[in-house]
């Protein structure tokens, strides 16, 4: 036996590994796709400096100074004026459903009080449920107002009093934002992974052959496989809610019905995704890889860690296709903002559509044979 290294034997092993790699196309695709996705997401989509956030204006006075303030906000990098709020109720709805991150209120008789030197107030309501998104704009607001009024009043003592009202999270506690979002990310990872691994494990152990030999239909297999995990997901939600309330002091101010409907729907969506992954993966390792491929954009593009409105438009468009994005909006709105079912319906119906589409695709991909 030749104890020295043989170049021919090394080359033969290399050829064998390359051939095996080309056969396992899914794993090879993940090896290439995950770094590319990380580069794009972290390089372009992730932005901790919240800029150009949607802002509504309550115009109690539309004089020159008021218009100058709005113009200064528009030209700044912190606010995007998206419309005029006709009433305080309309402004409250916009903050509650997330269509506005800020509401600026210019009071009646603002110009008259300013001319008299009475230092009128300007109110900035911010959606404090995301302290990162609200922080930069709130901190810059007073300076923007001061600069806007300099052409009228000069560099005198601040001619107006700026009042910052951080709604839903006055203390700016990060836990009130992160802990409700954890419900979405944890369910995304565990539900999809458990279901996908369940079927691929049966295929690896050979027990799937007995299942395929039965007269069951694809939708029957799907319902039977995901139903036990619905109870597991419900238990996870209960544990997370208890921890959020008693460990971190996160309130629950909104509709329990809206929360239950959204949670049940979100669990089913992720279980259906796991079932779909099991029709693609050939091994438990591949099933885990697919789950992680789903988890990364769910973690980064859903608004869980980074302000959704501060992301580029293409990243926001991708985020709208992720169930976690809509579920986190519902959870935060219900728990922190006291939202009811009609308030969060715009985030619930996309999950219904996603659930139907994913279930149909998974059922059609389900194979009645082991080939």
Radius of gyration: 27 Å
Quantity of strands, as a count: 5
Counted by DSSP, the helix tally is 14
> Approximately what portion of the residues adopt beta-strand conformation?
5-15%
The side-by-side strand order for the widest beta sheet comes to 2-1-3-4-5
The low-confidence parts are none
Mean of residue pLDDT values? 82
- The structural domain count equals 2
- Element-level helix/strand string: HHEHEHEHEHEHHHHHHHH
Structural class: alpha/beta
Distance between the termini: 42 Å
Rough outline: elongated
> Helix content range of the residues, please?
55-70%
**How can the largest sheet be summarized?**
5 strands, mixed
Give an account of the 3D structure:
One of its GO terms (cellular component) is plasma membrane. Pfam families: ABC2_membrane_3. Its main location: membrane. Belongs to the ABC-2 integral membrane protein family. This protein has 371 residues and is an alpha/beta fold. It has two domains: 53-167, abc type-2 transporter like domain (abc type-2 transporter like fold, 3-Layer(aba) Sandwich); 175-365, no CATH class. It is built from 14 helices and five strands. It has a five-stranded mixed beta sheet with strand order 2-1-3-4-5, with helices on both faces. Strand 1, helix 3 (64-75) and strand 2 form a beta-alpha-beta unit. Helix 7 (175-205) runs antiparallel to helix 13. The chain is elongated and about 90 Å long. The two termini are 42 Å apart. The mean pLDDT is 82.
